[in-house]
């Protein structure tokens, strides 16, 4: 089966400074890919290219090929609102809207014109169950999403994204602001979700990558050094730089 998302020769510059120097990475459906590497190597920059979040940053130049389901992600005709529904993003800090849980999860659906109560109720339950937070919030759907714990807020944000049925879920260090128990819950949620989605996660936590990712990409100074099955990369890395990074010699 062809990769759901294929990128070739991706270069990105902030002003005159090039931050990505020709990245080639393909992503399969029903899998988790981790992007790892030392601070500043370009992980978040690359991730943001995948749903055109870098378009929002002034003076950014992006070249290369991005094929999503075989279509050019950067075609001038691409509808960015639609694209970001299909390729949703979860951030480091949970960022629920200052509304109720119910309003958060139905936000995208209402924007898309869905207002039938029964349909919305069903989607709220489905998305919150998929995000493994239903049992914790089901009796308080009208309570502000901001009043829940950080881990619960993060899973509510995942549910908000799942409500609009994306194809790809991008996560930028989604557990780095969370305690170990909440982090473990998010990891379990992601492992369950990969049955239905393509998941791409930036993480500084090498144990996390080794626990949940099918494949791992190691980046260094804006270059892709190595991309392989996680089990292979963590036991027999092909490159010395990968081995040194995984062994804590830098980064
Ligand atoms: N908005 C921006 N404007 C200018 N330069 C930027 C911007 N965002 C990132 N950079 C630069 O691009 C390079 C890559 O940064 P990026 O945040 O993608 O790295 P990262 O690997 O995700 O780092 P971290 O792990 O610390 O989040 C860095 O040199 C960074 O300073």
TrEMBL record:
InterPro entries: AAA+_ATPase (IPR003593), ABC_transporter-like_ATP-bd (IPR003439), ABC_transporter-like_CS (IPR017871), P-loop_NTPase (IPR027417), PstB-like (IPR005670). Gene3D superfamilies: P-loop containing nucleotide triphosphate hydrolases (3.40.50.300). It holds the Pfam family ABC_tran. Residues 5-246 form the ABC transporter domain. GO terms for molecular function: ATP binding; ATP hydrolysis activity; phosphate transmembrane transporter activity. One of its GO terms (biological process) is phosphate ion transmembrane transport. The keyword Transport applies. It comes from the Bacteria. One of its GO terms (cellular component) is membrane. Keywords: ATP-binding, Nucleotide-binding, Phosphate transport, Transport. This is Phosphate ABC transporter ATP-binding protein.
């Amino acid at each position: 089966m062809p990769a759901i998302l294929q990128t070739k020769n991706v270069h990105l510059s902030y002003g005159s400074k090039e931050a990505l120097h020709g990245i080639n990475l393909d992503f399969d459906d029903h899998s988790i890919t981790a992007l790892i590497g030392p601070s500043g190597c370009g992980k978040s920059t690359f991730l943001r290219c995948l749903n055109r979040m870098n378009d929002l940053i002034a003076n950014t130049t992006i070249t290369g090929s991005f094929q999503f389901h075989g279509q050019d992600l950067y075609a001038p005709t691409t509808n960015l609102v639609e694209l970001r529904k299909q390729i949703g993003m979860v951030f480091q800090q949970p960022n629920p809207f200052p509304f109720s849980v119910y309003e958060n999860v139905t936000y995208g659906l209402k924007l898309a014109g869905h207002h039938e109560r029964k349909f919305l109720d069903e989607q709220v339950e489905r998305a919150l169950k998929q995000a493994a937070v239903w049992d914790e919030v089901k009796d308080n759907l009208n309570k502000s999403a901001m009043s829940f714990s950080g881990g619960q807020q993060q899973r509510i944000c995942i549910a908000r994204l799942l409500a609009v049925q994306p194809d790809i879920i991008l996560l930028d260090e989604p557990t780095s602001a969370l305690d170990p128990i909440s982090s473990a819950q998010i990891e379990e949620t992601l492992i369950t979700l990969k049955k239905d989605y393509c998941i791409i996660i930036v993480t500084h936590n090498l144990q996390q990558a080794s626990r949940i990712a099918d494949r791992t990409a190691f980046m260094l100074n804006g270059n892709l050094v190595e991309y392989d099955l996680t089990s292979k990369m963590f036991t027999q890395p092909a490159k010395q730089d990968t081995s040194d990074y995984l062994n804590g010699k830098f980064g």
